[in-house]
Amino acid sequence: MATTSLADSSSRGMTREEKKVIFASSLGTVFEWYDFYLYGSLAAFIGAAFFSEYPEATRNIFALLAFAAGFLVRPFGALVFGRIGDLVGRKYTFLVTILIMGLSTFLVGILPGSASWGIAAPVILIALRMLQGLALGGEYGGAATYVAEHAPDNKRGYYTSWIQTTATLGLFLSLIVILVIQNWLGKEAFAAWGWRLPFILSFVLLGISVWIRLSLSESPAFQRMKEEGKGSKAPLSEAFGQWKNAKIALLALFGLTAGQAVVWYSGQFYALFFLQNVLKVDGQSVNIMIAIALLLGTGFFVFFGWLSDRIGRKPIIMAGLALAIITYFPLFHALTWAANPALAKAQETVRATVTAAPGDCNFQFNPVGTRKPVSSCDIATDFLAKSSIPYDIVATAPAGTPATVTIGSETVSSFDGATAGADAAAKTAAFTKGVNTALQDGGYPLVRDPAKVADSKLDAFVAANPKLALDAAAIRGGTKTMVPVAQAVKDKLITADEAAGATEVAVFSVPGAGAFRMVADPAAVNWPKVIGILFILVLYVTMVYGPIAAILVEMFPTRIRYTGMSLPYHIGNGWFGGLLPATVFAMSAAKGDIYYGLWYPIVIAAMTLIIGLLFVRDTKGTDLHAVE
Question: Residue 515 pLDDT more than 90?
Fold first, then answer.
């Protein structure tokens, strides 16, 4: 098959072969991101099938391993497959990565759960997840290198920018497939077995990707290098063991990808978390708003790639970093006022004060979401942070006394989780109820769900909630539901001993008397403004991410290009970016300020901006054969 030359002319259009190269590389990478995102999107169903039967400590270990596989393992995949790609070739290496990713994903779909295979099921699942992480670590570098080495020197930013759209398109594809199957089967069938179908479907996508990639030729730059006998015999040691190349990798990491990663994760992932978990906007609305912003912004990956061929890669990436640094605080403040104005107003007027003994408050870094607060201060601050309440910590309480939370004129005592024992659930309920009541009195947008109360417990429930001014007789005069005893026990409405041989239990639904929820009033959400802010955040993502493949490829010589560019990319995105949500939350919880955690992406972006401006050379128009 004929191959395309690297740099013929500045005026010619894209050839048929080049279009095929871009399409095949991008399509395969979309499918790999599709496979990768499925695990995150369906984590709850996977957990129910593979982890739910085990003790909490065991579940936490599996969650930690799954997290490590998803993010921390990716740089090792970059090393393994980068080395193979520089020794054997780009085409065959990213054929292997897509085979590993596709087969691993398919096997997740058919793997029996822990109920059938016991402990072997989650162990195999984690092994498959690790293979996914390794494969993704090799895929991006292969696709970017392969496309770049087919591109004319003066159009490499434009050509490689198509690869940059794949993560967003893969996310879209996974969400669409999940929604279609969920609506087709219904929620119950989907939860029982239907969640496996998106994984099984990946086998079809794998076949399409492999068929297309098999028709491709090796990259011309790699072929020429092999013909000239200039290939590397030890890409890893040459790329990172020789200072002249290791220095380039360090500059690529700290002067480009670390900042690019935090801007990408802030604009595309943390913004979703912030809207849903901090501002309490309902999940469906958040997904729609994020989807619209991504649809509006995705084309700018290609635009900024194209623009980088005219004005340079570095100016665009540095401008995106600078804009993020300058505007993140005002943008996220504006997002709060647009999405939940009632919460924003309450935060301005009402703060909580946590009074605790010295040493009782800890930094709550929780990357896998399994750590439970134990000390009385941590229990209090964890609850307030997750409820989006600003607070101050005053470490003046006597040693050994539980922390207290003061809101306005009301003070609620926390408790020590280590000594609570069997009373932990009751103490948690009392603490959260007391704090939520004080917050509701202070103007925070909390609502209470209906409470389901068994008839035998109704009088006690009324007596325990004097502020609600309930009338037991009026409630009994309303509608009641007869619930089978087994279901009532499962729902914790009564205990098995309280059933006293009955087969059914009368249950009443008491409006506004159940669990508290912080909410964003749907009628108050300013959709155009929220989408506009999200679009700006996505625009920053496209600025830093659109030209990144081109500049990374152009920084390294052909003989170690796959290895050299893959590792800094995946350390930046897998570690600096992957740890962003947990780090931001921990910082915000430590300070009692929902915006404080934004200092993490801002500081990392500022570091990259300074190093990039001072030490990173722009690479626009580089002849890949001349890079040494």
Answer: no
Q: Three-state SS for 501? A: coil
Q: What is residue 12's predicted lDDT score, i.e. its pLDDT?
A: 60
**Can you read off the two tokens belonging to residue 14?**
């894209």
Q: What is the pLDDT of residue 41?
A: 74
- 442-473 pLDDT tens trace: 999 999 889 999 998 999 999 988 888 999 99
**Which secondary-structure segment (H or E) carries 510?**
strand 504-510
- Burial of 566 by CB count in 10 Å (0-12 exposed, 13-18 middle, 19+ buried)? buried
Distances in Å between the Cα of 559 and the Cα atoms of 85, 244, 284 are: 9, 14, 48
DSSP H helices, 374-502, are 376-386, 417-420, 424-441, 458-464, 472-476, 485-490, 496-499
Question: Rounded to an integer, what distance in angstroms lies between the CA atom of residue 315 and that of residue 613?
Answer: 9
Q: What is the pLDDT of residues 561-598, one digit of tens each?
A: 989 999 999 999 988 988 888 888 888 888 999 999 99
| DSSP notation for 29-71 | HHHHHHHHHHHHHTHHHHHHHHTTTS-HHHHHHHHHHHHIIII
Query: Is the pLDDT reported for residue 608 higher than 90?
Result: yes
Distance CA 523, CA 562 (A): 51
Query: Which residues are CB-contacts of 562 (< 8 A; sequence separation ≥ 6)?
Result: 81, 82, 83, 85, 86, 90, 93, 141, 142, 145, 235
pLDDT for 370 equals 60
Cα–Cα distance for residue pair 223/246, rounded to 1 Å: 25
Q: Are 552 and 164 in contact (CB under 8 A)?
A: no
What tens digit of pLDDT does each residue of 534-552 get? 999 999 999 999 999 999 9
Say if strands 480-484 and 504-510 run parallel, antiparallel, or are unpaired: antiparallel
Contacting residues for 161 by C-beta, under 8 A, at least 6 apart? 301, 302, 303, 304, 305, 306, 308, 546, 547, 549, 550
Structure tokens at 460: 């006690």
DSSP secondary-structure letter at 522? Answer: G
pTM above 0.70, yes or no: yes
Extract the tokens encoding 114. 């822990």
Dist CA 607 CA 341 (whole Å): 34
Cβ–Cβ < 8 Å for 363, 586 = yes
Instruction: Name the phi and psi angles at 368, rounded to 5.
Output: -105, 0
Question: Tokens in use for 8?
Answer: 């013929």
Cβ burial 289-327 (10 Å sphere, 16+ → b, else e): bbbebbeebbebbbbbbbbbbeebbbbbbbbbbbbbbee
Q: Shortest CA distance to 393 belongs to which of 424, 374, 414? A: 414
